[in-house]
Amino acid sequence: MRVRAGTGASGLQDSYEAGKQAATAAVSKLGGEKPSLVLVFTMPHYDLSLLLSGIRSVTGSVHLAGATGSGEILRAEYMGFGAGVAVMVMTAGPYRFGIASASNIHGDLDQSGQKIARESKAEAGPSPYSAMILLADCLAGNLQQLFQGVYKITGPKTCIVGGAAGDELQFKATFVFHDDKVIDQGAVAVWIASDKPLHTSIQHGWEPVGVPLLVTRAEGTEIMELGGRPACEAYEEQLGVAPGELTAENFWDTSMHHPLGILQMDGSSIIRVARTKTPDGSLLIQGCVPPAGSAVQVMKSSEDLLLAVAEDVGHDALSGNPEAAVVIAFSCAMRARLLKDRIPEEAARLQAAAGEAEVFGLYCCGEFARVSGTLGTHNATLAAIAL
Amino acid sequence: MVSIERPGDVAAEMDKLKQARDEALRAARSAVWDASRVNRLLTVLNEPAPLEFLLEKILTTVSELFSADVVVLLDPAGSGKYSPLASVGLPEDYEFEAASAGSIATLFTTYRAGTVFDREMLRAHPVFNELSRMLSVEAAAWIPMQGSRELRGALILARCTPIPFTREEMGLLAAMVYRIALTLEQIQNKNQLEHIVRGNQKIGRHLEESAIEEEAVQAFPVIVGADAAVLYRRKDEVSSICASVPAKINKSAPEWSFLANLLSNDQAILLGEAASVTNSEHSRFPASSADFPYRALLAAPLFHDGRLRGLLCAFRYNAVDFTLETKQIAMLYSGQIAAALENANLYGALRDELRERLSIEASLRESEERFRALVRNISDVIAVLNSDGTIKYVGEAAARALWGRSAEELVGITLLDRVHPDDLQTLTAVIADALGKPGENISVVVRMREGEAETWRYFDVIFTNLLHDSSVKGIVSTFHDITERKIFEKELTERAFSDPLTGLSNRANFIDHVRSALNIAVEQSTSVALIFFDLDNFKRVNDTFGHVAGDETLRTVADRVKGCLRNNDMVARLGGDEFTILIENVKDISQLLPFLERLLAALMIPVRLSGIDVNVGGSIGIAISRPNEDDAESLLHKADLAMYRAKKSGKGRYVVFDPAFEGDLPV
Question: I need a surface site. Which of A231, B293, B511, B657 has the fewest CB within 10 A?
């Protein structure tokens, strides 16, 4: 029994009508079959409750999960800031779905992760293989803790993929959706029970500059020292920039082109982004700070390298599940910033690699995907799963 | 004339250079990665955190650093329970013990050393076979965890990719696991003491024997890391189990009868020591059955007045013996329980007596005689106070024995005259409290003067305000002497700060001292010197002569080093053959040179083992603190780096830390 999937979008201003229009377009591609799961990725400016009502007026009360973001991918199309709402509907096919959410997760991330994993798993029921789509408020704190809570329940056999909700880079309020509920400071998990193995794809397209450095002091969201020296000074040296040349004002322009990669056992890197520098020369990291003792490298990339991973991720996702009807992708809002005018190519390349399967994606503020061990949060990275 | 190379040659040369550069970068990455692994774990271990939080932090860090999808920490308390104490990547519904078909114990006997399990090997043991089947594990590592004295459990790492754990990784893991074991050991010792203190507070609230028995037996398995416990007491020449965990046991099962034998015949118990046995080493230990599913026992005697009154016993399902430290903890606890039970006993008798007096007003005189007779025979001081604290009545014999004064001398004076000045305020407050709570028992620990000398004994005092009771008209107070127990508690606390093998300070205590020394140094504009050394040939001693000789060597070296120290210097053993010395009030390195020469000379003296003189030697690293710059950990790290440099440059020498060493990786 194959999955059928359909996607649709709307740029209407009226929240209810936009939801209804996008859902109608998506459902029309199911050939009369009923959807079992609805995913909604949207710009934040709608009345989100009304938006969901509009969608559910078409899909009925089936499982719905979603998030606000900083741009969406609908097949080969990139929907930028303010473009509207995108909806994906799919039939169950060989899968069973479970869904659960938690609100006010800040300060209780680990427990919240456990809760949504436990509840969504219980609803989907046991299966030999499984996957999870995880969406969370990007302002809720260190989301690695949420991820670790989830992993305590799933173990290594469940693929986890997803992203942190955004608000078109305003960093004021981001939301996730569970059925008809708009959840503030929350997280939502969709459990996908399967009889066949599922597979997460992830790549970032960044490569190291120079030698790795040890984080010798880190606290809270700051890296204070790299290799025993003030962090910014060491960072500047790696980039061949004169000491003190990077200021709080011009820092982001450089650092978005040169994130840090936490060195992994196999030589690969997990990306972290330094947002700014503090007056005493520390680097302020967005999201999860590499703990003291970590080995980090300053990274670089190019538009071509960043875009090239879209094809690889698309192919890799499908090679693990050639019969998939949909490729759900989570890219980073920072990648969109870096690719500028060429950002539509990302959607186009993903769709080219996905062939018949529909590509549906969100630009996030931090991506989730587990490759090995417990570390599952990423930045400036592209992750996907084919269902 | 300049020769013009062909473009092909240039390209080939460029390729070569690129290759060489890439190779160098790879090597640098690999070196930094190794350093990162060590640093990350040490950072976690050195952060003070509650045990549960620390375990999670350790395991997630190990998981990250070794790309392990599953990490399981088995039995680090050495309790014989094989369910994981902590894990990451084991799904919540994965029942580790059940999935392992009860075969975890055999892992410890089959794989005594660290073992790598590749795809093939995974089938060799049910525990790994099941991990492979249920979680798609394709490679695993088994690392037994050696504590400071014995095997404490094991760490299991598993990958869902077919990348086996390398020799280097296993070496690193073994070293990390040793540090983890020591850290956990220290925290657990501290936790045990805290449990005892808390248990004592709880028990102090009760005056009923049965309630004390119940509390005592409930807390005991937690304190000593056991699965079950019973309190076996001799009352009126009949011995029986009077409380147990679990509450429902078949007390009449014949297996329990060995407790009677233990109470009457066990040499250690009769001498007042705690005893422990496992079924594999003791022929009289009952075979396990449905009524008695246990395979290891710890029995602590309950003494009062030098007479053995019962046993507090803990049991484990597995045949894993209790450690020496645990036995000492158990004795401390049983001492407290014995005292509490005795107090309850006294109160019972006293209360019964008072009740009786109320009911038979007519025979008051006769009853008072009996009351006096009772009080004369007990070893606690019982006094009745007026509301202002003056002594109205006090038991003759006990007052003479414990306070060094006759009843005649004491009656009429205020109790406060006998109390240690530092405890006066507390006692006054407690009496005031008792005045407001007629009939309630209020307890406090105070020091009382012995005779007229400046010697003080500790008493556990319970006040019961019976001013309203026409037959008493006073505050009844019972003083139970707990001086011995206090001394024992102090010893035990000291033991928590020292290394059991050498008697030197342990790591935690040393670091505390370095911290305060650094603060003082800043105030006084001086520095402290931290000297770090280990024995160059210790591994060879262990390999050639065995661990007993290794221990002997460490003790000998500890004694010799103590001989080199000046009064205020402090030496500690951090673990293994690593020693550290703290020297305060240092103004210049030259001031240390005579000491360093002495130390080096002491380390060069051979140690005699099995009739052979063995050169153990040592390499010494020194770090001098810089005001407001170094903390204890960084100073230790610097000294460690300096020692590493000393070793690299030929052993048997000392090297002072230089910032250029920072890139070195301490081994």
Answer: B293
Q: For chain A, what is the domain count?
A: 2
Give the E-state strand segments of A229-366 in sequence order: 229-230, 260-263, 269-272, 274-277, 283-285, 295-300, 326-332, 358-364
Q: Which residue has the tokens 């990250």?
A: B64
Give the separation between CA A337 and CA B450, rounded to whole angstroms.
Answer: 82
Of A300, A322, A338, the one marking the end of a domain is A300
Distance of alpha carbon B128 from alpha carbon B145, whole angstroms: 18
Task: Kindly state whether B135 is in contact with chain A, defined as any CB-CB distance less than 8 angstroms.
Answer: yes
Distance in angstroms (rounded) separating the CA atoms of residues A143 and A269: 18
Nearest to A156 among B40, B70, B92 (CB): B70
A170 DSSP 8-state letter = -
| 3-class secondary structure, B624 | strand
User: Is pLDDT of B496 > 50?
Assistant: yes
Among candidate residues A300, A325, A357, the one where a domain is terminated: A300
Residues A106 and A224 in one domain: no
Contacts with A297 from chain B: Cβ below 8 Å: 29
Please say whether the beta carbons of A112 and A148 come within 8 A: no
Say if the Cβ atoms of B69 and A294 lie within 8 Å: no
pTM above 0.80, yes or no: no
Between chains, do B136 and A156 touch, taking CB under 8 Å as contact?
yes
Instruction: Give residue-wise pLDDT tens across range A154-187.
Output: 999 999 999 999 999 888 899 999 999 999 999 9
Nearest CA in chain A to B86: A152
The answer to whether residues A66 and A95 belong to one domain is: yes
Distances (CA, A) of B406 to B387, B401, B410: 22, 9, 6
> Least CB-CB distance to B159: which of A212, A267, A372?
A372
Please state the three-class secondary structure of B108-149 as a single string.
HHHCCCCEEECCCHHHHCHHHHHHHHHHCCCEEEEEEEECCC
The pLDDT tens digits of the residues spanning B304-359 come to: 767 788 899 999 887 778 877 788 888 888 888 887 887 777 777 777 766 665 56
> A130 near A192, Cβ under 8 Å?
yes
Domain span including residue A101:
5-202+306-386
Note the ipTM here.
Answer: 0.89
The two beta strands, B381-385 and B391-394, are: antiparallel
B424 in A contact zone (CB under 8 Å): no
